[in-house]
Input
Amino acid sequence: MRLDKLLANSGFGSRTEVKSLLKTGAVTVNDARQKEAKYQVNIAQDKVEVHGELVVYEEFTYLMLNKPQGVVSATEDNWGETVIDLLDERDQLKKLFPVGRLDKDTEGLLLISNNGVLAHNLLSPKKHVDKTYFAEIDGVVTEADIAIFKEGVTISDNYTCKPAELTVLVAENGISAVEITIQEGKFHQVKRMFEAVDKQVTYLKRLRMGTLELDGDLALGEYRPLTEDELAGLMGR
Output
């Protein structure tokens, strides 16, 4: 792999920025200074360092983010902060994107990666990937609601959702706390499903996506790389 491509893919800047970095003599390959952008690196054997920092090449990056409210699930937005803006500068340079989306006012688990194949497999309706949410509801969720969700809620004149699993955790004083598992990702889907049974979602947080479960130690806005076991689960290994 070209040295400039390796450095750019590892978050050391754009190709242009990396070329400038190389000219300063800050990059070494096997302890020898290397200024040629087109120098071919054996990523399995060569030791590459920038200012003495070892470069560890990863073809793909996988991050778990605990998304806060008020942040847009996009790579860029003209009006507000995006989930990519929450990342460290080095990670922002890796051409990452959110795998799927959470509404601006929804919290919780969001996978961020640059692996388009994995993203497609997790988001394709044909793959039947479960997504589980915790929700607070204005209204008492009943057994009748559970049955309707299990059958498939009609949220518009021409669309009925696939069957969803609805579990009531608390239902008292006119409010409910529930968990709901769906396999789709229609616009405002969970909110629209409850509106269809005359109830309103007041708080929504995603807990799981496929085999990936939100790390309870991550504060809102924090993120970390996936563990090997978490990645293996998503890959079906």
